[in-house]
Fold these 2 entries.
Entry 1:
Amino acid sequence: MHDRPRDDPLRSLLFTDLYELTMARAYAAEGTDQEAVFELFFRKLPPGRNYIVAAGLGDVLDSLETLGVTEDDLDYLRTLGLFSEAFLGQLRGFRFTGEVWAVPEGTVVFPDEPLVQVVAPILEAQLVEALVLNQVHFPSLVASKAARVVTAAAGRDVVEFGSRRAHGTDAALKAARAAYLMGAIGTSNVLAGRRYGIPVLGTMAHSYIQTHDDEAAAFAAFAALYPGTTLLVDTYDTLEGVRKVIDLGRRLGDRFRVRAIRLDSGDLGALAGHARQMLDAAGLHGVRIFASGGLDEHEVDALIAAGAPIDAFGVGTKLAVSEDVPSLDMAYKLVAYAGRPRMKLSSRKAIYPGRKQVIRRVEDGRIVRDVIGRHDETLEGEPLLQPVMRRGARLAAGRVSLEEARVHARSELERLPEELRSLAPAEVPYRVEISPALQADHDALRRTLEAAQSG
Amino acid sequence: MHDRPRDDPLRSLLFTDLYELTMARAYAAEGTDQEAVFELFFRKLPPGRNYIVAAGLGDVLDSLETLGVTEDDLDYLRTLGLFSEAFLGQLRGFRFTGEVWAVPEGTVVFPDEPLVQVVAPILEAQLVEALVLNQVHFPSLVASKAARVVTAAAGRDVVEFGSRRAHGTDAALKAARAAYLMGAIGTSNVLAGRRYGIPVLGTMAHSYIQTHDDEAAAFAAFAALYPGTTLLVDTYDTLEGVRKVIDLGRRLGDRFRVRAIRLDSGDLGALAGHARQMLDAAGLHGVRIFASGGLDEHEVDALIAAGAPIDAFGVGTKLAVSEDVPSLDMAYKLVAYAGRPRMKLSSRKAIYPGRKQVIRRVEDGRIVRDVIGRHDETLEGEPLLQPVMRRGARLAAGRVSLEEARVHARSELERLPEELRSLAPAEVPYRVEISPALQADHDALRRTLEAAQSG
């Protein structure tokens, strides 16, 4: 585990919405801090997405284990004029003591299925809302995008390149991690490499070529220093650049070790075809072709469908910001309090009350149907939610390494029906059913709440 | 300034793409570490955007002042097998020694205009690319979105609510800051409040209502604890909720201090109209109406156009992720090296070589035209780029407070021609010209490079 700086938002109870703190004081004042169950789920699949991949659990558990306030934090809260000294004193000793259930990182999930379930005194469970959502929403979003890119690449290498335009440093690191989780072979971000143990990869930039008076001299100098490197050939004229790589190969003979050329602009498919012919004609069959420049899953798919001889793809911005779907309708909702199921009425979307479990049915190695049921129901199939933390301490299932999660994610993608794995929207969405017992709980609670409103 | 944790990506030289480090070693090995000029700009306005607002400079300067490597970082780099001990020794002493020019935070900018200009030995200027881009791209993107939301609100209050679905913690904090910069009155994120000195605001969540057996009892308890609070009325039946607030007003009489009700679902315009009538009929003219729930600038604009009596808007996800435009085509490009202008050829988009200045012409208090010229040209108008750092140390213009930047941002929006301020795409984009001298430099360098390619 990496070292945790003191002011890291991931360990600060102040990374929360103000109303969580005002409500917490109210719970404390009213003496109503009983056990609550909150569930994190998303309401519907965004257009063009057939599934979402759960990610980010590790950071959530890390936060929950270390979350607290400093005296500086308390001094700041005092300035807001909203909190009694009694309440601030209570916050001083804050530590998360609850239980967490979650689906393993890398698991494919569908609308209304809890990804994370927090069971704790309501003061604690409520205070961590913003952090839990923030740390699961984006990783799940970007892992789902990465799954599509890796699927489109159909076995060719994908490298994550998106740090520059990711939304801040945390997003850059998380995007690199999520891409690797879903099968990318590495990232360009060195800090992500160090922090998560992900392979770091890179080529060269146009600026390196431009600082040399001569492109060929730049290639020669870089190749001498980094024998297995990738040379960027499109600074001036792409096919001229390829010719210079071939010339370098002729000059160096057996000492030529350049592993790849990179194309970063223009008609990547046509340029890759020409470059491949030129390299092959020169006997440089081993020099691979790496393509980058504004790629997403659709462009990768189109290049491969057109037969472009591209061996590896660098995918940046559109992956790291999940360009077509930059947010999910994900929420963290109270479903039970003091042992009784809860729900709100005014939403047009049904929210099912009570603590739940998700059961997945698998046939012939493919997932076919999920049932969302009560937590205590016995239903046939694989239960997705597992206990990962108890009394504020991680359990074994909460200590899954990135490599283990990556293996799990791969098997999850392999278990997807073809229609869901496809980049195209599935004509028939995956079946998610509500168990009769859960439906009955919902209907009964709705009747009670409606009667209370009209009474 | 807030305290800076040791592992903060903003002070780690490892928050960079691997190729920056391999190129740096190459520069060191080749003895070619001469002065470079890099410029950060965006190439074109995204669809539906008439301008971009520059933001994020403070974090960039903060990083540049403190950036370095730790022994742990060096140990990690050693494991990659790419770097000589001589180079690692050079990195150990790394500190940024360059000069930075930038447009002030909150300034409106247009395509091809440098927002930030870094002048430093190429090893330094190149290594900071990912960090500079990452720390300017997202803040500028989200500030531009916030400008539209605040403009749409037409004087009504806007509160930033987007932490949960922002892309990670860094993005959440930056979105809160950018929204305040552009005129939002505050944020719900408490850590952003503490870190940046932004007002923090909040109401109550549905879960608070749900933990009480009775909505009216929940209102009474909360209002007793927080006299000037906002009560959320849509947990069960919105207008029923409003009636309960009115009942509470009748019961409390002079002691009733509730400041607002919040609507978070349903037809916000119609509900606000009904609620206003009910509150007014009960004599509660002072109780304001706060609306939230999936809002963006277009919905705010439509509500106001329809005459909805809404006094304040909570705007979350769509602002914090810049939902319609989650990235800009922003780049950090070498434009001069060793005293000579540089450019690449293969791009279809012209990139102008050499160090630049942007001159803005203002007529009758509105901006009318910009000219991008050579850095050393004398052109009539306001120069946008100002020196903010010299020899690695901030200058006065690099120490602008958030409040000062906020005043500047407001005057910038006021100076926009109406057509650009509008939410609708401008029929005629803002005029940005290239000075004849810069155009001549570009044409001459293009001829030289093309001759070198064909020769």
Entry 2:
Amino acid sequence: MEGPEILYRYRREIEREVTRALSTGDSALDEMMRYQLGWAAEGTPNLGKCLRPSLCLLACDALGGDLEAALPVAVAIEFVHNFSLIHDDIEDGDDTRHHRPTLWRVYGRDHAVAAGLALWTKAYETLDGATAGGLPAERVLEARRVVNAACQNIIEGQHLDLSFELRADVTLPEYIDMISRKSGALLSASLRVGAVLAGANDEQAMLFGDFGLKLGLAFQIRDDILGIWGEGSATGKPVGADIARKKKTLPIVHAFEQAVGPDRDLLRAVYGSPRIEDEDVDAVLAVLQRWNCRYFAQGLAEDYRASAMEALSRAQIAPDDRRRFDDLMSFVLERDY
Amino acid sequence: MEGPEILYRYRREIEREVTRALSTGDSALDEMMRYQLGWAAEGTPNLGKCLRPSLCLLACDALGGDLEAALPVAVAIEFVHNFSLIHDDIEDGDDTRHHRPTLWRVYGRDHAVAAGLALWTKAYETLDGATAGGLPAERVLEARRVVNAACQNIIEGQHLDLSFELRADVTLPEYIDMISRKSGALLSASLRVGAVLAGANDEQAMLFGDFGLKLGLAFQIRDDILGIWGEGSATGKPVGADIARKKKTLPIVHAFEQAVGPDRDLLRAVYGSPRIEDEDVDAVLAVLQRWNCRYFAQGLAEDYRASAMEALSRAQIAPDDRRRFDDLMSFVLERDY
């Protein structure tokens, strides 16, 4: 795996804590939780990018917090993220994730939902355990509030996303609101919680949260771009994949808002029909090109990057840490997978 | 509605707090949460029995705790209960609850799952808010731990319940373990949390929790009896309803363990077939009668009652409060709905 330093910096500690939290249970749900977190038959989990716990720990680190004490909270956030991935995979009908069959494909839908819920309670159990590491109860309680509020946003965002599939008239502000909740909220919470655990004051914690929200928006918009124009060899999906699935991602929302004449008629006809054929995908790709939807999306992501780095500069952290966040931003906006 | 005093004692306060917690949001999920909690077009919710928050408050009351401060926690438990009901209704395919269409029947399955999750986060938000009422942070944190552990048990119990449907060889201890989690855990938590909020020591809190667990077991076993022999006019279900749905409730588990010869063959044939016909229901009812399954179940529920009251007597509460719990037990074991 390629990527910036931050994706490796705390990896060993995160793996250790994930292993500690999940390795003991012996029920069917415990096994499913381990599967979701990438467990092979034996040994340590094969985690994904671990972006959220890494960001939580980097924020804590940059403000001089106790990393070892923050570790259970960081891992709790990764569990919450995986809970949302389980639901995403079910709602989107996705068959694979990280080159393995998705949880619901292996265990069935009802069982996957149950495992997702179990993982959520495991997240709170792990988070609550953070007082044992010496963190003050008030900081842990504040971390819980921030994480729970993020959960509310994720659930609301996933629900909005579902409802958008049935509508042709989703506006750009509505779309940004939806991804702010679905993708931005937990990244925002990751950084904010890291700051809270380090004892940051409210303003500093909010600046970290703001950075995380903008990072999340840039991340999701890049995801939207890759979902349409990503190369199959890197993303595991064919070009036009999100069009074939009728997903109303940012480039499509922009096209619906901008296109006029025959292009608009074509979009309405394609997204109003029960099934999208291969030639429809090509036609929509052509419409997106004529209305510069890819460049619009990438430009918006760059705007969020600038806004994120502006928030971070006001949080007054050391240049080395600032560079680490900046490297991550570059990675998010340039990645091909 | 009939029933013991405890089901009315705190009703007005519970309704007020439920209204406060749920009346402000204006998203589609907020509306679904209100529907689940019995909201009519206008005004206050038309709640169900509110057994769990009532028990939480009675435990708190009996130990001299601050009822007003405990109210958000009690209501949070009712929200957790309703979260589990939403999933129960989906898993069982139930069309009605409290004489209204179930949430998933009105809004669809995916949306109902999302509303259930939203209700769960609302529970934690409401619980966290209890510090504002003057409760010490340590007691609120302990309440969260108890409620979260109950959630883990509920999820595990619902998952076991699902897996039992595919098995003919469920043993009585396995069944009791399952209902301890699915039905006992939250009743146990309700009473234990009430004691914790009143400042009870660990032993006293555990005795209340033990009472709640046994109450939950007696409650579920009575439910199992009503699911098979309940009169349609009171329960809203025909006699033999749980047989027709192939639910492996206590009388059936007992019959599978006890019956020999042709009766055993009949049970295996009926529960092994893809569909149960009306004449199968009658045949199973006859088998249950020959093996005294109803009396066995009611006897077991009475045993749990005795064990519950024994735990309560060790908790040393005033005679009036003890009588209130005893009345509730009589209601649980004699109710027809």
